[in-house]
C-alpha cells in the first residue's frame, strides 16, 4: 500500500505542478481568512497538498475524501504540523454543527449530482462568521486553439457530458446565496498553458468523444496529432477558466 500511495502522490504532484496551480491554491487560502489555531476542513482533499500547506501556516487542517487511496497518499505526504485525514462523504460529514472556521472544496462540486446538498452540509459544519471557498472549472468552457474548431467544440462538450455536474462552477454564487451565506463573491482565474503541460488532459477529452460517438478514431487521432504538432512548434494554447467563490456564514 505504501508503494501505491507514493506512486499516486507522484501523479498528483504532477497535476499540482501545472501552470498556475500553486498560485490558485494560495488564493483560496487567503480567501479563507483563517489563521493559526483555526480549524479548517478541506473536502475532496486528494493527495493532501492543501492540507499540508494550511498546516504549515499554523491552521488546524482536516482533510476529507471518499477514496482510501487518496487518503493513504495524503498521509504519506506528511507536513510540518499534525494533519488529520478522514474518510467521509461530502454530503454526510461526520462532524458537529459549527465545528469549523473554514471550509474549502477544490474541484469537488462538479463531481456531484446535487451540489446544493453539499453546500448545505458545508453551512452546517461552519461556525458563525466562518468562511467557505469553492474552486473549480466549468467543463463546458475549456478553450483550446485548433484547426478544427467545430470538432474541438464537440469533443469538449462530449467530455462535459460525462461529468455529474459539468456546469456547477457557474452556479457557485447561486448555490451560496440559496444556502444563506453572506458576503458572496466570485472571481475567475484563467489557467493558460502554452507549453503542452496539459496535453494529458486531451487524451481524456478524446476518449470521451470516442465513447460518445461524436468523432471517428481517425478524426481523433488527427486531432491529437495536430495538438502534439502545435506543442512541438510552440503553437499550443489551452486555457481553463477556474471559478473561485467565497462567502461567510452570517454572524449570530
From TrEMBL:
<dbReference type="GO" id="GO:0008757">
    <property type="term" value="F:S-adenosylmethionine-dependent methyltransferase activity"/>
</dbReference>
<keyword id="KW-0489">Methyltransferase</keyword>
<dbReference type="GO" id="GO:0032259">
    <property type="term" value="P:methylation"/>
</dbReference>
<dbReference type="InterPro" id="IPR029063">
    <property type="entry name" value="SAM-dependent_MTases_sf"/>
</dbReference>
<dbReference type="Pfam" id="PF08241">
    <property type="entry name" value="Methyltransf_11"/>
</dbReference>
<protein>
    <submittedName>
        <fullName>Methyltransferase domain-containing protein</fullName>
    </submittedName>
</protein>
<feature type="domain" description="Methyltransferase type 11">
    <location>
        <begin position="41"/>
        <end position="134"/>
    </location>
</feature>
<dbReference type="InterPro" id="IPR013216">
    <property type="entry name" value="Methyltransf_11"/>
</dbReference>
<keyword id="KW-0808">Transferase</keyword>
Amino acid at each position: 500500500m505504501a508503494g501505491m500511495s507514493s506512486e499516486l502522490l507522484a501523479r498528483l504532484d504532477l497535476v499540482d505542478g501545472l501552470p498556475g496551480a500553486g498560485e490558485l491554491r494560495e488564493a483560496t487560502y487567503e480567501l479563507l481568512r483563517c489563521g493559526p489555531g483555526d480549524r479548517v476542513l478541506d473536502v475532496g482533499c486528494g493527495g493532501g497538498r492543501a492540507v499540508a500547506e494550511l498546516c504549515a501556516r499554523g491552521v488546524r487542517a482536516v482533510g476529507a475524501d471518499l477514496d482510501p487511496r487518496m487518503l493513504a497518499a495524503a498521509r504519506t505526504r506528511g507536513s510540518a504540523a499534525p494533519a488529520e485525514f478522514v474518510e467521509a462523504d461530502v454530503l454526510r460529514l461526520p462532524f458537529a454543527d459549527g465545528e469549523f472556521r473554514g471550509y474549502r472544496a477544490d474541484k469537488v462540486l462538479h463531481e456531484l449530482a446535487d451540489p446544493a446538498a453539499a453546500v448545505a452540509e458545508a453551512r452546517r459544519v461552519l461556525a458563525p462568521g466562518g468562511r467557505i471557498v469553492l474552486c473549480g472549472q466549468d467543463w463546458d468552457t475549456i478553450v483550446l486553439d485548433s484547426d478544427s474548431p467545430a470538432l474541438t467544440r464537440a469533443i469538449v462538450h462530449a467530455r462535459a457530458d460525462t461529468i455529474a455536474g459539468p456546469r456547477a462552477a457557474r452556479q457557485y454564487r447561486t448555490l451560496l446565496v440559496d444556502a444563506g451565506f453572506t458576503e458572496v463573491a466570485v472571481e475567475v482565474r484563467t489557467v493558460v498553458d502554452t507549453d503542452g503541460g496539459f496535453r494529458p488532459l486531451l487524451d481524456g477529452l478524446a476518449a470521451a468523444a470516442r465513447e460518445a460517438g461524436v468523432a471517428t478514431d481517425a478524426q481523433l487521432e488527427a486531432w491529437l496529432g495536430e495538438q502534439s504538432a502545435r506543442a512541438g512548434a510552440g503553437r499550443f494554447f489551452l486555457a481553463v477558466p477556474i471559478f473561485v467563490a467565497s462567502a461567510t456564514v452570517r454572524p449570530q
